[in-house]
Amino acid sequence: xxxxxxxxxxxxxxxxxxxxxxxxxxxxxxxxxxxxxxxxxxxxxxxxxxxxxxxxxxxxxxxxxxxxxxxxxxxxxxxxxxxxxxxxxxxxxxxxxxxxxxxxxxxxxxxxxxxxxxxxxxxxxxxxxxxxxxxxxxxxxxxxxxxxxxxxxxxxxxxxxxxxxxxxxxxxxxxxxxxxxxxxxxxxxxxxxxxxxxxxxxxxxxxxxxxxxxxxxxxxxxxxxxxxxxxxxxxxxxxxxxxxxxxxxxxxxxxxxxxxxxxxxxxxxxxxxxxxxxxxxxxxxxxxxxxxxxxxxxxxxxxxxxxxxxxxxxxxxxxxxxxxxxxxxxxxxxxxxxxxxxxxxxxxxxxxxxxxxxx
Length: 359
Description:
The protein has 359 residues and is of the alpha/beta class. 37% of the residues lie in helices and 28% in strands.
């Protein structure tokens, strides 16, 4: 598999996007509808037990393989070509400036030279890729090149996992890049959002919440903090006497008993909104910026009732829950009610599936 084709998405054939996080496996399959409209054909989610994947590392290989097989069956997809994501923490990315007009072999040599100075481990231990972003805005005759590298054993672990589950991995991406690709499609449909708008993307994971501030294609700021949806799942499991996986499933599907939801969800929503406000304050204190134009909420926990309103109240900025499938048509097997409840969890998986159609 060509890493150049893979990481920067040179329009492969139809495939499924498979997002493997520490807490679940999420699958999305898209098709091309009329014109440029995309159609959601299949989606599914399968929870993972604690410790099966830890900090992006596959710890229980056979168990995660079975979870991938279950999510394939649950989704109903017949596609076996897959796009997978490397956790952002396992990938080193660096933008460098190189002379324009280099032949491909010369460019590869220059990239390897630059990478040898950037990476903390030998080149023969990494999967390395690069993409020419375009002319440097301030240096005539120079181009900006994005280098991405991850340890080979990490990449091979994820490829081997998909192969053991009966899939053919043809695209390897970075999780944060895939999420931003899905976001880019949404932003293009918001006429009031100009290219200079500052967008605060908040990805609420099980253990970690990541704030990424974007201006167009530029990442202005990024910071992770140890606060996530698993805290609420643990509270629900403890109060209801359910296994943690059941508590997580019911939380995302909004199937909690009314009394339990009333007791646990509003206090957690308030606390989460305060954590997001603190993350934004870190951004303001460390940059010249004093505001953002919009706060965008994603991740399974983002669908909690009232979170967008709580974030608006805590930050003073417009806030909305992202639906990565907004503007798409739906295939005949898609259950719309379930999709709308769970959609915020699928931002990365959706971006991976979009590699079939968008560069």
